[in-house]
């Protein structure tokens, strides 16, 4: 009997991943898992071909200003793999800051969490795990079972948590990202872009700086074992201190990383690597190239470009065990090295403003406006506070804007806000109304 990947896809894969409810279901699941293992062993060459075909994309940005320094097909739609866990952790850090979780809080492990494919910590249903241990499990081991524990604690179920993840992605400006699970295990509907994960990386640094050092952990001890961090580039690239690796057949080898040199921090995302080594080498080469570029002085720094990093959107694992999911078709790869943008057409005085976020509630937008005013009180004291309500993918979003500025004042205010780590985009009324 020849076991092919199409055989697994058409008849067995759904049984293998579904939690069994009967003894017959358990027998089918064991059979399916055995056949998947055989297919994996017999399909080594096919796995390599699929990895080679995974979508290649990359982007390097300045972490503080958001300036795009290098990009290669950064908007190509692909699969995030375990980079997904960055959003799971972002929402976990939100909950810690808001008092909904504590680091030493014990969370229950469900049967669904236990059933996750490797890599994992080997959690068992009925036991508990501390929040901080789960965080370290995600950061170093890329533990899928620990990701589900956090998801269920925050969302009630992994499916509801995935909806929370997608909503937060919209708030942060991740225009092309949809989450369907908390771990990054294969799901054809779970998609993203390199640009979106650069946005999430910058948000992690700006919004949760006190938790970011977790991503620098080289290893941690669990169950008597020392678990090393999958991001091995940290050990050989000067200045790198995080963030996350990921891999499935459909995605190829992914890496989101951040490094500092001479007081300047860059964020890089590489998607679709052919191997972990080639992915790491590519990231190192791109960061070297970007660090070699002249660093503009603050007076020359332009604000973020609305078309690339504004939070509005009009549309809606590393090393996990691979499963037979094919990459979505995407447009042809092209490489672009970012250059200075041509000046935008002049707008009438007092028709400019700044946007400081797009949120799921009016209250969150008003809070963002208040924080922006505190960070640049003199530049924004005459601005009109505005929360612009719109619909995105059937959901309401509330855009926090400070309007009524001239172009010079808007650009200066945005530069000041980004200097303080606040997301900001210059806008004109005509662009947004």
UniProtKB/TrEMBL annotation:
Active site annotation, chain numbering = 82 (acyl-ester intermediate), 85 (proton acceptor), 142
**What one GO molecular function would you report for this record?**
peptidoglycan binding
**Pfam families cross-referenced by the UniProt entry:** Peptidase_S11, SPOR
The residues listed in the UniProt record as binding substrate, with positions renumbered to this chain, are 244
Q: Which keywords accompany this UniProt record?
A: Carboxypeptidase, Cell shape, Cell wall biogenesis/degradation, Hydrolase, Peptidoglycan synthesis, Protease, Signal
Which protein family is named in the record?
Belongs to the peptidase S11 family.
What is the name of this protein?
A: D-alanyl-D-alanine carboxypeptidase
Q: Please tell me the species this chain comes from.
A: Azospirillum thermophilum
């Amino acid at each position: 009997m020849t076991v092919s990947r199409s055989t697994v896809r058409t008849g067995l894969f759904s049984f293998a991943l579904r939690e069994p409810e009967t003894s017959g279901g358990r027998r089918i699941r064991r059979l399916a898992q055995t056949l998947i293992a055989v297919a994996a062993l017999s399909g080594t060459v096919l796995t390599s071909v699929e990895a080679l075909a995974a979508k290649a994309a990359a982007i390097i940005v300045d972490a503080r200003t958001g300036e795009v320094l290098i990009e290669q097909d950064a908007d190509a739609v692909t699969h995030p793999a375990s980079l997904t866990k960055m959003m799971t952790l972002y929402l976990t850090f939100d909950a810690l800051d808001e008092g909904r979780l504590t680091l030493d809080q014990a969370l229950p492990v469900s049967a669904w969490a236990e059933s996750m494919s490797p890599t994992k910590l080997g959690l068992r249903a009925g036991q508990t795990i501390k929040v901080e241990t789960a965080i370290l499990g995600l950061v170093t081991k890329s533990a899928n079972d620990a990701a589900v524990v956090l998801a269920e604690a925050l969302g009630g179920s992994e499916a509801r948590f995935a909806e929370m993840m997608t909503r937060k992605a919209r708030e942060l400006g991740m225009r092309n990202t949809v989450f369907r699970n908390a771990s990054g295990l294969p799901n054809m509907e779970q998609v993203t872009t390199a640009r979106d994960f650069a946005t999430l990386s910058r948000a992690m640094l700006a919004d949760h700086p006190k938790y970011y050092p977790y991503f620098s952990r080289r290893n941690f001890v669990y169950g008597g074992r020392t678990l090393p961090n999958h991001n091995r580039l940290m050990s050989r690239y000067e200045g790198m201190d995080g963030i996350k690796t990921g891999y499935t057949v459909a995605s190829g080898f992914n890496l989101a990383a951040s490094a500092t040199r001479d007081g300047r921090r860059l964020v890089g995302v590489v998607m679709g690597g052919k191997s972990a080594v080639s992915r790491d080498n590519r990231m190192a080469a791109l960061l070297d190239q970007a660090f070699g570029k002249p660093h503009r002085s603050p007076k020359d720094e332009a604000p973020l470009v609305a078309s690339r990093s504004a939070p509005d959107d009009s549309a809606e694992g590393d090393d996990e065990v691979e499963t037979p999911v094919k990459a979505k078709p995407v447009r042809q790869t092209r490489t672009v090295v970012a250059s200075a943008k041509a000046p935008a057409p002049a707008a009438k005085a007092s028709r400019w403003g700044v946007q400081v976020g797009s949120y799921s509630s009016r209250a969150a937008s008003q809070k963002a406006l208040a924080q922006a005013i505190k960070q640049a009180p003199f530049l924004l004291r005459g601005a009109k506070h505005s929360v612009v309500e719109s619909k995105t993918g059937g959901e309401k979003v509330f855009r926090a804007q400070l309007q009524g500025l001239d172009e010079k004042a808007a650009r200066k205010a945005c530069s000041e806000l980004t200097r303080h780590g606040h997301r900001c985009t210059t806008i004109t009324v005509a662009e947004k109304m």
